[in-house]
Amino acid sequence: MSPIQLSAISTRFRHIWFRNLITYRRIWRVNFLVPLLEPGFYILAFGLGFSGLIGAVDYAGMQLAYTRFMAPALVATACMWNAFFETTYTSFVRMYYQKTFDGILATPMSMEEIIVAEIVWAASKASAAVAVMLAVLIPIGYANFPGALVCIPIAFLGGLAFAAIGMFFTGVIPTIDMFNLPIFLFITPMFLFSGTFFPVSGIPDWAGIFTLIFPLYHLVELMRYFCIGAMESNPLLNLAYLVGFTVIFGFLALLTMKRRIIK
Amino acid sequence: MQIIDAQDVIKRFGAFTAVDGIRFHVEKGEFFGLLGPNGAGKTSAIRMIYGFSPVTAGHMRVFGMDIATQWREIRSRMGVCQQENTLDPDLTVEQNLRIYARYFDMDKARARERAEELLQFFALSHKRAAKVMELSGGLARRLQLARALMAEPDLLILDEPTTGLDPQSRHQVWNRLTDLKKRGLTMLLTTHYMDEAESLCDRLVIMDHGRIIAQGAPRQLIAEHAAESVIEIEGPGPELKTYLKDHQIKHDDLGERMIIFADAQGELENEVRRRFCMASCLFRAGNLEDVFLRLTGRELRE
Predict the structure, then answer these.
(1) Most CB within 10 Å of its CB: which of A203, A223, B143, B186?
(2) What is the largest CA-CA distance in chain A?
C-alpha cells in the first residue's frame, strides 16, 4: 500500500469539484426543492402538533418557542445529511459502479486530489442547501438577518467534517447496503441527541457529556448562535472541535480510500 | 529515447506475483503489442506503466522519467483507454471529452476545438448531446478512445480496445488506429484477438504467468515458433504420425486434428496432399494464433 502523499494534493482538485458541479446543476431543481420544503414541513408539524404539548423551551437563559429553538438545528442536520450522503452513497456509486475514479486516475490527477475534491464538493453542496433553507427561515423570522448568513460558511466547515467521516466509511464498507450500519449506529443517534430536539442542559450530566463527542452537537450550537444569537457553549471550542474532527477523519478517509483503490 | 523502458519489473499482490520480472522497451512511433492469456499479467503491467499501481520491484521508465516520482508529468503526456468502460455516465458525450481535458489543465478554448476534431474523427458528432448510458458498445468504445486522445498524448495505451465489439465497430476502430499510427503516435495494445495484433503491431511480446515468453515482430515470431504455412488434417492416421516423426516435421498432435507447420517451399505440402489428404485437409498461412497457442498451451485458463 502506498502512503498518503500530501505533496500529491494540488489545486487541480478543483477540476473534479467542477465535474460534480455540472452534474449537480443538471438536476438543480431537485437539489433545491428538498432544502426549500424541509424546514416548512418540520416547522408546520412541530409548530402545530408539538407546541401545544411543550410550550416554551429554556435555553441559554431564554424562553424560546419550541419551533424557534428547533429551526437552527434543522439547518445543522440538513448540512449533515447533505454532506454525509454525498461522500457515502454518491461517492460509492462513482467509485464502484461508474468507475469514475479509475478513469480520472489515468490523467494527471492523484488519488489524494480525488478524495479532497469529493469532500470539498460535499461541503459545498451542504452550504448550498443551508443557503436555500435560510432563504426560507430568515423571511419568516426564524433566523436573524444578517447574522444568520454566517451559517453558510459554518455549514461548509460542518460539511467538511461529515463528508470526511462519510468518505472514511466509503473507504472501509464492503458493499453499498452496509451504509445502513453507520447510519443507524452513528447518524441517527447523533440526529436525536445533539441538542436538536431538546436542550442538552436539560438532560443528566453523564448523558450531556456523551453528546459532546457528536460533531452535530457542535454544529447545532454554532447554527443556533448565528441564527438566534444564543448558545450554551463556547463558539471557539465548537469551531475547534469541528476542525479537529475534519482533520482526523480527512486523514483516515485518504488512508482507507487509497488502500481500497490503489492496488 | 525509449518511450517505455521496463527493467525487471515485478508486481506482487500479497503472496501472488502477477508480473514476474518483465523487461521490454517501446520505441518512439512504434505500435507495440502485449499479448497473453487471461491472468498473464497484462493489465497489471499496463497499470504500472500509467502509475495506477505502484511497482513492487524493478524500474519502469516512461518518456525517460521514473513513474514512481514523475507520474504527473508522465500521465500528462499519455492517453489511456481502459478495458472497462470508465466513461462518466453523469455527463453527455461532448462533456465527457471537455471535462476530461480539464484534468490535464488544458486550455478551455483548445479543449473545445480538440473535442470537435475528435468527434469528427470518431464519427461521433451526431451523438454529441447524447447521454453516455444511451450509447451502444461500439459508440462507447469510440468515445473512450476519443477521450484518451483529448490531451494530444505522445503515447496511447489501449487495453483490449475491441473486446465485445461487432465486426463493423472493430474494423472502424482498426482504421482509426491505423490512421493514428501513420501520424507517428506511439501505441501500446493488449488484445485477445491475434489477427488484430498481427495486422496492427510492429513488435510484440507474449506474456504468460507474469513472464515474457517471446518477443519480436509478428512475421518473425510466426517463422520462429510456427511456420509460414500450415496444414490442418482432420482424423490423422498412424501413417501420417510416423511420416511426421521420421521426417522430423514440426507439428501439434491434437488427437482428432493434426497441425503441421510446413516450410514455404511447398515440397512437403505436395507430399502431404498426395499421400494423406483423403478426407478433409486445410492449407493456410501460419498466423499469430498458432504461435500463441504453441507457446501458452491449449488448456483453459479460468
Answers:
(1) A223
(2) 60
Mean pLDDT of B106-130: 96
Nearest to A23 among B85, B87, B90 (CB): B90
* Cβ–Cβ < 8 Å for A86, A163: yes
B32 in contact with A, Cβ within 8 Å? no
pLDDT greater than 60 at residue B299: yes
Chain A residue whose CA is closest to B90: A23
Please report the residues numbered 243 through 262 in chain A whose beta carbons come closer than 8 angstroms to any beta carbon of chain B. 262
- pLDDT range class, residue B203, cuts 50, 70, 90: very high
Mind listing the pLDDT tens digit for each residue in B248-277?
Answer: 888 888 888 888 888 766 777 777 777 887
Domain ranges of chain A: 27-261
Contact with chain B for residue A5, Cβ under 8 A:
no
Q: Does A107 touch chain B (CB under 8 A)?
A: yes
Cβ of residue A63 closer than 8 Å to a chain B Cβ: no
Model confidence at A87, in pLDDT bands (50, 70, 90)? very high
Q: Does A26 touch chain B (CB under 8 A)?
A: yes
Q: Flag whether residue B52 sits within 8 Å of chain A, measured between CB atoms.
A: yes
> Is the CB of residue A225 less than 8 Å from the CB of residue A231?
yes
How many percent of chain B have pLDDT more than 90? 74
All residues of chain A having their beta carbon less than 8 Å from the beta carbon of residue B54 are 2, 262
Closest to B104 (Cβ–Cβ): which among A2, A18, A108? A108
**pTM: predicted TM-score of the whole model, two decimal places:** 0.92
**Which residues in chain A touch residue B102, judged by CB atoms under 8 angstroms apart?**
15, 18-19
Hunting for cell 476519443 — which residue is that?
B146
Query: What is the ipTM metric for this complex?
Result: 0.89
Q: Three cell numbers at B76?
A: 500528462
pLDDT in tens, A124-158: 999 999 999 999 999 999 999 999 999 999 999 99
In chain B the domains, ranked by start, together with CATH numbers, are 4-217 (3.40.50.300), 227-286 (3.30.70)
Nearest-CA distance B78 → chain A (Å):
8
